[in-house]
Amino acid sequence: MTATLTGTAPAPAATSPRLSRWVLRLHRPALYGWAGLVLVLAALLLALRGPLADAAAEAWRQYNACAGERCHYDQAAILRYKDYYSYATLALNALPLLVAAWAGAALTGRELESGTALLSWTQGASPARWLAVRLAVPALAVTAGTTLLFSLHHLAWNAGHGRIDTAKPWSDRWTFHAGGPSIVALTLAGLAAGALAGLLLRRTLPALLVGTVVAAGVRGLAEIALPHLWPAVTRVSTMDQGFAGSGLTVDQGMITRTGAHVPVPQCGSVEACRNAYAGFTGHWNTYHPFSHYWPLQLTTGALVLAMAGLLVLGCFLALRRLTGPATAQATTAGRTATGGVTA
Predict the structure, then answer these.
(1) Domain of 283?
(2) Alpha helices (H) along the chain
(3) What is the mean pLDDT of residues 18-39?
(4) Which helix or strand (DSSP H or E) is residue 165 part of?
């Protein structure tokens, strides 16, 4: 009696909707956690836009009406607004790192470490489609959640601007990113960074750490480039006027008698400063006024999205390197494993 292994027809390729449902089921706890985080922050930002901002503004009105005399005002309302605003702003700025850590640990690193990814590839889902769906589904959730949050944060900032003396200026970097579309781009870059770390390291904890570090590096590069992404304004003033103009400072210094622009001199004492400033006739200040807010937001977001695109390209190149001949053999074995034996 002789035995022959007869292969069956290849399994049909898994459709994108089926893969999407599988990703949602697999990462259901993360989805619930993300939705809960977005709802909590949204509720806090709505409170900052409404009752918390109103109470703090009224407290500052009472304080400013005192005219230097001892009087009663609601100091607790001012401190409450300041604390809750700081919590919400820092939470939004931490989202890219949180998403990067999750993407590195759970989205790709754990599946490659446990072999779940290889099993998916042997069931008819190509590696490229597997990765595309795993990037696309979280990206939709991340984009929807962060868009809602930055919109509410901007409204909350507007509610306190000009009414609360201790409100953060728009040029504060934490406030700037939390209240605009740049935070969406940073979070998507964090997702791509984590996914790339998981594909390269194929281990959960190292991918978590490396993905977070790469996301922080993207944020750092954006911070360095931000002041130079839109033409700045330069204002000149006399020595008595000091530095003119306020906003996001790019550079500033002193003007000599010859009209040259030089950096601010460093001096350690009053006498030394008096001598150092003796030869200057004025100040110059290069900065971005508030009217540059949205141009800076859009150019920063575009730059970060470009970096995110490079990270996504890196993901597919890493996957191509990973899924070489070994994966092709494993896929063939998986498709013929159901073959029949005939005598």
Answers:
(1) 233-290
(2) 16-26, 28-49, 51-64, 75-102, 110-114, 116-122, 127-160, 173-178, 182-201, 204-225, 270-276, 293-322, 325-336
(3) 81
(4) none
CA dist 293 to 94, 143, 227, 228, 234, Å? 21, 21, 11, 13, 16
Average of per-residue pLDDT across 292-316? 96
201, part of any domain? yes
Residues 206 and 256 in one domain: no
Claim to verify: residue 281 and residue 189 sit in the same structural domain: no
CB 111 within 8 A of CB 117: yes
Per-residue pLDDT tens digits for 186-219:
999 999 999 999 999 988 899 999 999 999 999 9
Do 223 and 75 reside in the same domain of the chain?
Answer: yes
In this structure, are residues 319 and 297 in contact, taking their beta carbons and an 8 Å threshold? no
If you ran DSSP here, which 8-state letter would residue 168 be given? P
* C-alpha torsion sign, points 87, 88, 93, 99: positive
Q: What is the pTM of this model?
A: 0.84
59 and 170 together in one domain = yes
Q: Does the pLDDT value for residue 6 go beyond 50?
A: no
Q: How confident is the model at residue 11 (pLDDT cuts 50, 70, 90)?
A: very low
Residue 122 · residue 130 · CB < 8 Å: no
From 122, 172, 147, 131, select the one nearest 10 (Cα to Cα). Answer: 122
In 10 A of CB 269, how many CB atoms? 8
Domains of the chain: total = 2
Output the pLDDT for position 186.
Answer: 97
* Whether residue 143 is found in the same domain as residue 277: no
Mark out the alpha helices in 226-292 (DSSP H runs). Answer: 270-276
Could you give the 3-state DSSP secondary structure of residue 70? Answer: coil
Q: What DSSP assignment string belongs to 103-162?
A: IIIIIIIHHHHHTHHHHHHHTT--HHHHHHHHHHHHHHHHHHHHHHHHHHHHHHHHHHTT
Give pLDDT, residue 267: 77
